[in-house]
Structure formats: C-alpha cells, structure tokens
Amino acid sequence: MSGLRFATLVLLAATAATTAKAQTCPALFAGGQGPVLVNAKLTDRTTALCFEAFAVLHSGVTRTPLYSAEHLTRESIAAARTVARDDTFHEETRLPPEARARLEDYVRSGFDRGHLAPAADMPTLSAQAESFSLANIVPQDRAMNRGIWSDIEESTRRFATRHGSVYVVTGVVFEGESLREIGAGVLVPTQLYKALYDPATGQAGAYLVPNAAGREWKSLSLDELRTVTGVDVFPALSPAAKASAMTLPNPQSGGHGEARRPDGSQYQGWRDWLWRETMRALRKAVRQLLREIF
To answer: Domain span at residue 52?
Structure first.
C-alpha cells in the first residue's frame, strides 16, 4: 500500500471516528450531523461531551474545547433571559486529569475564562451551571471577550429571536508555530469563530475574530472557514450553502455583555432583586460545600 493511500485511510478513519462521537447528541447539530474535523492534526486525543443545552469536542492536546454546538430557538432565548447568572467554574471530571484544564491554570493568567457556548444562552439554571465547565472554556483576551465577542453573542441571540431558530458552532483556531500557553499547558487560541446556520432560509456564515483587543472581525463562508480552521462545521449543508456567506447581524448594533446580565433594574423592585441575589449566593455556597465534601 502506498504511503499516500495509507495516510488517506488514516485521515478517513479519524474523521469517521470523530463524526461518530459527535452523533451522541444529534439534536444539537444541523441535520443531526456534528462538525467534522478535516484536518487530521486536530483529531488526536479528542473527546465528545454532551451537556443539557450544548455539546463540545474537547482536545487533550490543547486542554480546551475545539468547538461547541448549540441549537438556539426563540423559546430557549426567552427562557435564558430569565436565568440569573451564577458563575461557578469547575473542572470537567469526565475528562482524564492529564487532558483537562484546571482552575489554577487560569489564576493570574491575564486571560478571561471565555465560554464557547455562552452562559447567557442557557435556558435553565442547570444548563447554565454546566456551561461553566472548563471543557467549555478557553483563554480569551479580556477586552475582546467583553467587547466585540460579547456583542457577537448578543447579536446571535437576537438573530435566533427574530428568525425563530438558528444552529450555532463556536470554535477556536490555533495558528502559527509558537503558541502561547497558560498554567500547565492550556493553549491560547489565536482566533475564535462563531458559525450560524438559518434553517428557514438555508443560509449560513461565520464570524472570525482575533483573540486580541480591538473590534476587528471578518465574515466568512463555511468553505472559507473550513480552510482556516480545518473543521466542516455544518457537514449536512449543501455545497451552495457552504460556498456563500449569509449577511450576518452587525455586532456593532448588538447589546453589550454587561447589559444583558440580570440586575436589579430588570425586576419589579429592589426587594425582588435582593431575594433573587440572596438565593443565587446561597445556591452557589451549597454547591461549593458539596464539592468539598464529595
């Protein structure tokens, strides 16, 4: 067997294995098909994980997710806007210790713990708690995370509300020979992307954003995104849908991250707000106590 044929068979086998693992929660994927890694280098030590409202493919090489997948609907976004944010980052115990990020990796790293599947997308408190798993987190530039990226996330939620349904794949790019890392080997992405597919129109496109301060972003077709990332994010789509980029919501007109988090002004009165915040703090304390006990 020739070397080229053997390498091709290895790539096809790795791609098939990755796709098979992604099928464990097909409702979150457009057409029931999860993203396919077409770059063989990405397939090493990957683990597919299903959560209540999103799925991730985690890499033991980078100790980060490679992508998250969600199906956002008008109803799920409406429900998510009623869930008070409760930051409880935690390590993902379904991953082996040598492959996963640790809480201490992010301490004094200079980077935000950036969600791929945003906490503000989660329609229930339990789903939101799952979104704080480090299997869904990457080192993200603080200004980018709280600025342009937050606006892209909010623009995506508004798009789902207007159109009724949107499939979303959010992922990372590691570009270049010399990558930064934090802690015990958690790699820092050079870029992040968010791909959208509108099943009502059959159109799709993606934002591509440098993991750096500023408001720079590009709009890409899925074919262009595949070239950059090595990932076919929506394999069930037609070649025509992948070839042209849809008109994406302008993140300049999106909401800002801090504005979308529930605070006292969103409730009928300060007593209601105080009660909710007290219960949020109590739930957080109980979860922390249970983790220390068990």
So the answer is: 3-262
Contact assessment for residue 123 and residue 80, using Cβ atoms and an 8 Å cutoff: yes
| Amino acid making up residue 218 | K
**Residues 177 and 37 placed together within one structural domain of the fold:** yes
pLDDT digits (tens, 9 = 90+) for 214-266: 999 999 999 999 999 999 999 999 999 999 999 999 997 544 433 333 333 33
pTM: 0.81
Statement to judge: residues 186 and 288 lie in one domain: no
Q: Maximum CA pair distance of the chain?
A: 74
| One domain for residues 13 and 40 | yes
- Structural domains in the chain (count): 2
- From the candidates 58, 71, 90, 115, give the one annotated as an active-site residue: 115
Q: Output the CA–CA distances (angstroms, integers) from residue 66 to 120, 135, 193, 231, 277, in the order listed.
A: 20, 9, 11, 9, 34
Q: Are residues 141 and 240 in the same domain?
A: yes
Helix (H) or strand (E) run with residue 76 in it? helix 74-80
For the question of residue 58 being annotated catalytic, the response is no
Cβ-proximal residues to 259 (8 Å cutoff; 6+ apart), any chain: none
Is residue 36 located within the same domain as residue 84? yes
**Phi, psi angle pair for 170, to nearest 5°:** -115, 130
CA distance 144 to 285: 30
